[in-house]
Amino acid sequence: MNKLLSSQKFKRASIQIVFLVSLVFIIVSLIVVGQKNIAAQGIATGFGFLERTTGWPISFSVIEVTARSTYARVLFAGLLNTMLVGFLTLFFATVLGLILALLRVSSNTLMNIVGTTYVEIFRNVPVILQVFFWYALLTHLPSPKQAYDLGGVAFLSNRGLMMPAPTLSATDLWVLIGTLTAIGFGLFYAKQNGGAKRRWLIAIAAFFAVFLVLLLTGREPDQSLISIPELKGLRFVGGITLKPEFSALLIGLVLFGAAYIGEIIRGGLLSVERGKLEAGSALGLSGFQINRYVRIPLAFRAMLPSLANQYVWLMKGTTVGIAIGYPDYFAVVSTSINQSGQTMELLALLMGGFIVVNYSLGFVMNKINDRIKLKGRS
Amino acid sequence: MAASLTAPAAATGPVVWLRKHFFSTWYDAVFSILFSMLIAWMVNKLLGWAVFDAIWRVENRELCTHDAGACWAVIEDRGRLILFGLYPYEEQWRSTLACLAVIVTMVLSCLPKFWSIRRLPILWIAGFGIFVLLMRGGFAGMPLVRSEQWGGLSLTIFIFAAVFVIGMPLAVIFALARRSTLPVIAKVSGLFIDLVRSLPLLTLLFAAAVVVPLLVPEAIQGTKLGRVVVAFALFFAVYQAEIIRAGLQSTSQGQEEAAVALGMPYWSLVVDILLPQAFRNTLPSTINQAVITFKETSVVTIIGFFEVMASGNAAIGTGEWGNQYIEVYVFLAFIYFIFVFGLSRYGAWLEKRMRLGHV
Global pTM? Predict the structure, then answer.
């Protein structure tokens, strides 16, 4: 008996069993207490509420949502809002970050100063403060009657930026998104099989062809091709409006994210050893060729893991939108919890939604990383 | 026989320097001129707004118009609200002292003298304890101030310090658990860490504030602030755990085996051999994590706490100073900037020092 108690194997097994049992105990007791408390409030459990109508509208969405929409639809609209702002942030922050990185690695001292000052200011101030700042700035603009006129077609006021837009219906937009996806797959396939030479040109032409067909066929006969915003009474009608909530969140996240992404790209560029660049010039490559075939490919490999982390971080950062009233996924879920009381189910949906989005983003970045990783070394 | 050449004269002097840094090619020259104009214009505008045309005193507040410079009078009028929140006016010296105690703790823990696995926890618990005692009061003639009345910068610093003090030991536990040789413990903690890492901080804080009361018996619920701080600490801990794990992996396997061969108990192995090296090797990443955590304390404003971001919003929430939002936000940004820039410069200095092999 003593021998059994002192044996390593027995000790290890018992520690793990105790750990598992207490874990299960904690989870079960949480569920039991939760069920009891929720039942005491007279709320039915389960996901049946998703079919009910919400009774409240949301201020901004890509798909049509009214107070009569179901919870499922409103939640989906929130998720789309998060992804919209998230992916636009990733795109613009990467572009701006690249510019910042180039400023900071250049040999020109003045460009270094500008890049460094930008990065230090925007990286060291919380993103939520920046979002509040841009929101205050945008909502303190003049009212639509005194709106800034940008060339007679676009107007900037405290209701947002009104811009001309092609007259497309919601279905047309979905068709366009579908076309883009198809073209993306087509390009990927063409690359795999060493396909057509001018595939980018063909892809762009195909997209514009679909766009034109939709524009010419989709509208009512008397509508104009492009709708331009016009002041009617106290507000603008027509065109497309970028609401201040959306713009402020996007600007704040982009400016903040760009400072981080710029540093990641700079780190990647600096990580390429001098010897490799010198080897390139010894082989007679030109300055452009060294950048194109030696520096950028190597730098891209070095920066990709940190870039993936930063992308996931920015995706999660979109949740600060609730502070200024942008109806992202988190904001919609939190209103739903207030209104319906289905706390547990909605919390599970909230966390599930973010886990799915972030895991797929991480998955894609990992795939890219595996694909381009230098082979032969671990 | 080839004639030996003299080495080329080293090109120095102001002209060479100027040419190298500003005019090395024609497009470099164009950029230099454009950027110098841009910098001059911005510095001129900024100095004019923030210093020369600014209105500093509340007496002159009628001068604060749209065309005038910065109206710093709002900071004179509302500065105390921003820094102390709703903390009782006569007791605000306590809040100041408490913040100083935490700042001194932070500065002291930056000194290599305190970098020992026994000294640092004592220092932090002492600093944090002084903070809480001073803020709460209720002894030695200091009236009791409940945590609901804490606000402004002191609440921000409290959240930061509490997250650090609670989160650090948790992070060590998570990191050790994930590296454990017991498969069940390693798997479960790995799953937990990855799960929490993929969630936004705000969802965790929200769950702690709103959902936990539904799931936990009333006796162990604690205050809302307490729950939120614990959730925040959990979030910090999973990130910090990954940093510590990287540090643990960077210590050589041989040391661990040698310790086991000498019959060292597990805790002595961890405390005396593994952790000191793990922390030392990952100090720059740890400081980076502290920087991120300090900035993210501002998120708690969304779930209704009156920290410095919220008190800043309150300062411009009334009609009286409603138009001075830029000044207040710049002031807030400046406060954050001092802390965060200081910390990150220190991190950069440490990194340089480590590269030279001094740590």
Answer: 0.86
Distance (Å, whole) CA B221 – CA B198: 26
Write the DSSP symbol of residue B199.
S
Q: So what's the ipTM on this one?
A: 0.86
What does the domain layout of chain A look like in residue ranges?
71-126+244-372
Residues 200-219 of A with CB under 8 A from B: none
Q: What percent of chain A has pLDDT over 70?
A: 93
What is the interface size between A and B, counted as CB pairs within 8 Å?
A: 140
The helix/strand/coil state of B251 is coil
Three-state secondary structure call for residue A97: helix
CB B276 within 8 A of CB B116: yes
In sequence order, the β-bridge partners of residue A235 are: A232
Shortest CA distance to A306 belongs to which of A276, A262, A372, A272?
A262
Q: Does A270 touch chain B (CB under 8 A)?
A: no
Determine contact: B344 vs chain A, CB below 8 A: yes
Give me the half-sphere count of Cα atoms (radius 13 Å) on the Cβ side of residue A254. 19
Q: What is the CATH number of domain A71-126+244-372?
A: 1.10.3720.10
Q: How far apart are CA A336 and CA A345, in angstroms?
A: 11
| Contacts B216 to A, Cβ<8 Å | 30, 33
Residue A64 φ then ψ, to 5° = -75, 125
CA distance B166 to B230: 7
User: How many Cβ atoms from other residues are within 10 Å of residue B83's Cβ?
Assistant: 23
CA-closest candidate to residue B87, choices B125, B137, B126: B137
H/E stretch holding B200 reads none
Q: Return d(Cα A331, Cα A325) in angstroms, integer.
A: 8
| CB proximity B201 to A under 8 Å | yes
CB contact under 8 A, B202 and A320: yes
Q: What is the pLDDT of residues B141-191, one digit of tens each?
A: 778 888 778 888 888 988 998 998 899 999 999 999 998 888 889 999 988
Element (H, E) at A137: helix A127-139
CA distance B144 to B135: 8
Contact A33 B22 (CB under 8 A): no
Contact between B202 and B135 (Cβ < 8 Å): no
Q: Say yes or no: B295 contacts chain A, CB-CB below 8 A.
A: yes
**Cβ contact A136–B329 (<8 Å):** yes
Domains of chain B: 84-355 (1.10.3720.10)
For residue A16, what is the enclosing H or E element?
Answer: helix A8-40
> In chain B, which among 122-141 make CB contacts under 8 A with chain A?
none
CA B138, chain centre distance (Å): 30
The strand order across the sheet containing A160-163 reads A148-150, A154-157, A160-163, A240-242
- The C-alpha atoms of residue A349 and residue A74 are separated, in whole angstroms, by 13
Render pLDDT for B102-115 as a digit per residue (tens, 0 to 9): 888 888 888 777 77
The SS3 assignment for B69 reads: coil
Asked if B24's CB is within 8 angstroms of A34's CB, the reply is no
Instruction: Name the residue among A160, A129, A128, A126 with its Cα closest to residue A143.
Output: A160
